[in-house]
Amino acid sequence: MRFEGRAAFVVGILLPVLETCRRGIGCWFVDFTTMFEDYVGGLLLIIAGAVSARGGRSASLWLVLAWGCVTFMMSNSVLDQIEGTLRGEEMEPNNGIVVAVKLLLWGVCVTALVCSFRRPQTDSKGQAPYRGE
Prior knowledge:
Blueprint: H1 3-23, H2 27-30, H3 32-54, H4 59-87, H5 95-118
Helix pairs in contact: 1-3, 1-5, 3-4, 4-5
């Protein structure tokens, strides 16, 4: 399995786990959408990773879709965190660690998205998928 497929499983698990560790379970009742988007993004990546691992015809599409959505979500999150930090508004405990981890995850997302676009999906025999021609 290629980088973008393996990374889909890793980031798909890390997104909800890290957000829950950072904010706590109680945040579901306070700020539902903040938690929900990480769980949905993680689920989408895990589904894309599973389709990619099975070598399905739609694997490339799933990977581009999942990485595109999660990269957009992470871009918004990273920029908001950095802006809040620079303005002095985002002064949560361990803010520097949060910014560093978000930047690292964002870098993985961008890299995986680019790889998803650049590499055609192949099956286990190294053949390109059926294109309906």
